[in-house]
């Protein structure tokens, strides 16, 4: 059998090639305000965007309005005076002849018709949207999927006004330069740890990829100086989601790291989903300048912790103290006070430090106990947004607000979700992981159901905004979504700049396997293994089908031979936070090898059990 082999350009390269092509096309013509150049989806991954380009004889300002289905759906922006105009168009409707009005500072007007294609079936349509145009205005609610769906943005009527064709992972955050930070679509290791994060303009152009040797998961946070806190891990040591790094915004270099194993014991305080591999499961990070500290959410210890930014030392823990050593409870845990209701949070997400020092989080409530005998079944459970007031001198805690408990099981998410603080009394609560299996509310992440069972799952995601405890907005979508973020499509700082994006940081050197077993020559690799090899700009990827537990080594044979152990037994992740990277075939294996530290010509072979097979592929690295 001839192994399938293909070279792949990075999305940054593909976008640069596309950009060069449309710029060359534009430069060939004489495009004016009355007859501008229009390019739909110029950067290939955001179908409801376009770019309008033209020249004017004298500098002039410009205003743009993408017409809504009704006037309240209009999306407008303005641009400073220029003679070379490069105007991004956001908020187009899918499958529609969109009307886009351009008005110069002189008052001259042009109306363009921009026809878009129908949205992908991955773009889920809301089953419910309840708000008013007066309240929601021209905001867009963005959601990033954990089940089969697209990252998308919805307006006040529930119409899709932005989506991407890439399988983005985890949170979307707008940063100081107006661009977005989001996890890459490039899988580093299962089930969902990706190569890093993208910095992307709303038009879909990726300006930077920040690669992390241990991979990225869950969350990122922009510091005041622009540097980035990114959640990661050190895979060779056998644990995941228990480290944090500070990344230089300009170079991608790791400036500082924090290892939670130095602050916490790994074998106590476990939630119902904890195992030794994923003992903490860090799903959120927040830097607080006032206290120069980091607040972290550890799902698998039912704990929101705070550590010193400089030293990494533990400052305090919010969580049920049952099961923790008494000396840690006495020193770091809070005692509930106050006359109102109080519930501890369990398997929480998205911790936020508020301006007054209060802590908000999404309390998933999964199991809602530390002892198995007391676990609460999903049908009797609840999830909620919660706000705690803490006194770090007296080590006291008071619950001052919550929303969701009163909705019971229909609002229950075993995993994912977030809260957002807009202003006092003005919050978002996103229960994005609701699921029903055979009519019963799921007591494990719905994305864990595979095969025939998956067909019995009904997914839901409920996003709510409240103002002074009045529900001002609610949207429900028939899929699971990690987080919801309300954003404007246009940001003045998000200025399109031409040129190729940057690959920053490094994937590191892939760990090698040094004990090579004896193997008989087996000839060409058998077709049953369905082996495919891909060569990207910074790594090589093996895709194949192996039975569980088979011994597989990937070998690069050149002047020096490099051998890599390919895992064929998948860990049973109890917190499948993103299921969009899962293959339908449980035997499917994807294994990347970083090109860092490799140079020269290599013949690729595979040792599978007791035989060594040739692939017929030779690569130059």
Topology:
Elements: E1 4-7, H1 11-28, E2 37-40, E3 49-66, E4 75-90, E5 97-104, E6 109-115, E7 128-130, H2 133-136, E8 140-145, E9 152-154, E10 160-163, E11 169-174, E12 180-183, E13 187-189, E14 193-200, E15 206-216, E16 220-222, E17 228-232, E18 243-247, E19 254-259, E20 282-288, E21 293-298, E22 303-308, E23 314-318, H3 326-332, E24 335-336, E25 349-353, E26 359-363, E27 384-391, E28 396-403, E29 418-423, E30 426-437, E31 440-441, E32 457-467, E33 470-477, E34 481-487, E35 502-505, E36 520-524, E37 532-535, E38 539-545, E39 552-557, E40 561-565, E41 588-594, E42 601-608, E43 611-620
Parallel strand pairs: 1-37, 15-35, 24-28, 36-43
Antiparallel strand pairs: 2-3, 3-4, 3-5, 5-6, 7-33, 8-9, 8-34, 9-10, 11-12, 12-14, 13-14, 14-15, 16-17, 17-18, 18-19, 20-21, 21-22, 22-23, 25-26, 26-27, 27-28, 29-30, 30-31, 30-32, 32-33, 37-38, 38-41, 39-40, 39-42, 42-43
Question: How would you describe what is shown here?
Answer:
With 621 residues, the chain is mainly beta. It folds into three domains: 8-115, Immunoglobulins (Immunoglobulin-like), CATH 2.60.40; 129-504, 6 Propeller (Neuraminidase), CATH 2.120.10; 509-620, Immunoglobulin-like. β37 and β38 (539-545) form a beta hairpin.
